[in-house]
Amino acid sequence: MKTSDTPRTYKVKSFGCQMNVYDGERMGELLEAKGIKPAAEGEDADLVVLNTCHIREKATEKVYSDIGRIVKAGNKAGRDPMIAVAGCVAQAEGEEIMKRAPAVGIVVGPQAYHRLGDMVTKAVAGERGTDTDMPEDAKFAALPRRRKVAPSAFLTVQEGCDKFCTYCVVPYTRGAEISRPYTDLVEEAKRLVDAGAREITLLGQNVNAWRGEDTAGHSVGLEGLVKELANLPDLERIRYTTSHPNDMTDELIAAHGEIDKLMPYLHLPVQSGSDRVLKAMNRSHTAQSYLRLLDRFREVRPDIALSGDFIVGFPGETEAEFAETLHIVDAVRYAAAFSFKYSPRPGTPAANMDDQIAPEVMDERLQRLQTALGRHQHAFNQASLGKTCDVLIERKGRKPGQWLGKSPWLQSVFFDSELKIGDMVRAELVQAGPSSLQGRVLDSVPA
Length: 447
Ligand code: SAH
Ligand code: SF4
Ligand code: F3S
Hints:
Its EC number is 2.8.4.3. The protein contains 13 helices and 21 strands.
């Protein structure tokens, strides 16, 4: 790599989960602290950070096609942008990226990106660098303070995974489960609220495995942190994601009936409705134990919206086993869901299992599953019609004069009235579509 000028502008492109979005924002702040400014909309940046996801094959392939596109655009414009690959592909395939893509100057893993600034300095001097260390919790302490944030902000409280589901790369790319300290999180939440956040979503690969020590020295679970954050007067909504069924505690369930600011929404992936498949996935819950858990949430919070993740075509999945997944979908009546075709990931046990399912069988199952999930989502939206609720306005809609916000149940609600980002409006839900609703403003609570 040749020596280049210090980049003046940057762009971070984040793929994958919300934790990557959080990391992407933090990398942006870090670069800004170094005097590098965000590139304007539509402008080519001097430094492009690809914050990648390794969860499925398709997500991974994106990295190389994106690198190719950036190089081509750079050549055309007669310039040579600096490219950094961050995120989970960087962690999993760091050396390979360096070999395959000479245009990449920096490879930095998800636990090491607090060192990105130094790596940029070195790259300017012509030194390519890979950093995929996993120092426990070091990055959070080393990151700059947060400034301006959106009304709905993310806060990573827990990282990593010890569950080792047999299909999943996360335990390898994000490392072992760690919880960030209670006081650090309360401080960061305060700063987010001061910077304009009205809603905070607590993030973790296994967010409900979070544990910490409160200011009185008591060991508390996630409900303890939620309770403390609910005391922040200007914070109006709290959410958390993603939970694992096995880490769910009585205290966290009870919190849903006790804390008004904790929104009535729970994302709890099930993956499959078949106990044989769940066992082969190493999920350590059954369809029944999962359903019983959800019943307990519904007891304390009857209006709770439930969401889940599903994988179709796990090795060996029979038609009858897939039918059990459809069955659990009907039993739960999900308000929202994410569903995926199984993608074999290098280094995971499931990738070497017999009976890999043919792609056309997966396609067909995914279609049937998504039809069922779509039906329930639409029904959930229909059942919301006529309800009055608060909606937090997050952005402009696609049509002129249109605004988009989120209901307490995380539904997208559109408005045609004149509003602004960060408004919390009292609204009636007047029309329901398959994946969104139309609202009518009753009253706007001043920001
Ligand atoms: N920690 C969370 C989510 C992890 S990744 C949890 O345990 O639920 C998000 C989702 O991607 C998973 O819930 C799963 O549905 C899906 N996923 C993970 N690995 C996959 C793979 N190899 N193929 C297809 N989908 C996968
Ligand atoms: Fe992956 Fe399972 Fe961990 Fe979720 S719990 S991140 S699916 S290994
Ligand atoms: Fe993807 Fe890594 Fe998140 S693999 S889903 S970006 S933890």
